[in-house]
Amino acid sequence: QVQLVESGGGSVQAGGSLRLSCAATANTYSTKVMGWFRQAPGKEREGVAFVVIPGGTTYYADSVKGRFTISQDNAKNTVYLQMDSLKIEDTAVYYCAANHLGGRVFDPSRYKLWGQGTQVTVSS
User: Fold this and answer.
1) Per DSSP, what are the bridge partners of residue 13?
2) How far apart are CA 99 and CA 78, in angstroms?
3) What is the mean pLDDT of the chain?
4) How far lies 96's CA from each of 5, 36, 102, 115, 124, in Å?
């Protein structure tokens, strides 16, 4: 059974940077799309950034465009999320998702495989 292992969360001041990693324990060639969602307390899970595998087409939420960059290393079955110019409102648990079922990329119900989540806290 393929698993997603996340790392890289933590605490940072506003304006700082963090890089999240999501490593799959098996080949991700058939996953179609991998990406990141986040969920803040009391809020719904929202899509952040996604990459088509293979191919490399990327999708970003408007709230993170120009600040976050998603990338992939197919040899390592790993997807990264570089987060720059972090804002307090970026504070959330970030979840990696894979095995897209088709349909809307930003819809969490369209993913079969999830990581355990990693906390990102941005302070003033």
Assistant:
1) 123
2) 14
3) 94
4) 8, 5, 17, 5, 26
